Amino acid sequence: MKQVEQLYQKKVLVLGLAKSGFTAARILHGLGAFVTVNDAKPFEENSEAQELLNMGVTVICGRHPEDLLDEGFELVVKNPGIPYNNVIIESAIEKGIPIWTEIELAYLISEAPFIGITGSNGKTTTTTLLFHMLNQDRKKPLIAGNIGTVASGVAENATEENVIVTELSSFQLKGTDTFRPRIAIVTNFYEAHLDYHGSFEDYTASKMKIAQNQTSEDYFIYNADQPLLSAFAAKCKAQLIPFTLKGKTEHSISADDEFVYWQGEKVIERSKIMLGGQHNLENILAATAAALLWGGTKETITRVLTSFTGVKHRSQFITSWNGRKFYNDSKATNALATKSALEAFPEQIILLAGGLERNHSLEELRPYMERVKALITFGETADRFAEFAGDCGVPAITKAGDMLDAVEKAVSHSEDGDTILLSPACASWDQYESFEIRGDAFIDAVLQVTEANE
Predict the structure, then answer these.
(1) Domains annotated on the chain, with CATH
(2) Structure pTM?
(3) pLDDT in tens, 160-184
(4) Which residues are annotated as a binding site?
(5) Staple partner for 326: which of 81, 117, 318, 387, CB 3.0–4.6 Å?
(6) Distance (Å, rounded) from C-alpha 366 to C-alpha 351?
């Protein structure tokens, strides 16, 4: 880990704990900064705060004092989820105090270079896919960021032999200053998190901070099929690597109906790729380009693409049984994500959908409902989904009480060649604590039903 002189004896406020705040505070304390941690959770319930106090870190818990910044802090490191209209953050901005997320700290302490991946959709799949490609090619990758592993915690143990493959959200990138990935990837832009950012312009500008410090020695991989991203790319200083699904190109990465190409040469036949869907093909192009730029081989990339079936809960292939294929897309917590899933599969889908009622429109799904031969609904939105599906002309609509009941009813409506897809288009919290638990319940139900009918 690099020693960062600019942080030595600097007064730093870490706002919000959880995994990222705890790790940042611990590292900053180790670098010789004078660290104060402020977290809303009461001290007696806050194991992270208790541990930091034992290290000698100043801890203020259970409230956010309005006069907190009167202590003369020179830097604020905030939890990414804390919005910029937070009273303390607004006050720090007025005082001209720099505001970081721990991604900036990770970059400053890391001996390893970074590959950064962001975008509205596809970040996790692209990050995971790229990690597997580099790992199988023995490039010693580490995986970090929004995918679940705190980047600064990974960076403190990384060496020059490693590369840190990092999934990055707009929340994380907005709080960066000098962060410079050697390869930056932006998968796509869609409207998201406007409640946090206030505008689409701020959202996209935050995402594009991934490339703001890149130079001509670096690479920027982006979706050339989106005009807005192409316009952003034109302002970048890095070497541009556009990807497109609109046919073969000679100087970058591309795909047509039959092949994936790198600089005009065939990499893999599309029919051999395990991960289905147009949206996943974008992720495949981005990950493949990055792997090749980092010295990966076409042979390894082909091996990964012919075996990788997806990230858990994201169009994850579960099993084949009596000619039916089962897919778990529990991560689809809104209509846009379910639309992408429906678009990815051929017709004759039995769709399992429903969940927490947020009164979101389902209209984005209408053009794709003709692919659905049966809908199994559940949760708070079950009746609204049923009414919508009926209006779309879905032939069979059934309400289920729980996931096992839903899978049993889906199987009863299915035939040889059908796809049975969990893609709820809703959050899980009406019935499950998380989309992961919901997805695991689906997997368990599928295995129970198929094994019982062997």
Answers:
(1) 5-100 (3.40.50.720), 103-305 (3.40.1190.10), 316-452 (3.90.190.20)
(2) 0.80
(3) 999 999 999 999 999 999 999 999 9
(4) 119-125
(5) 318
(6) 13
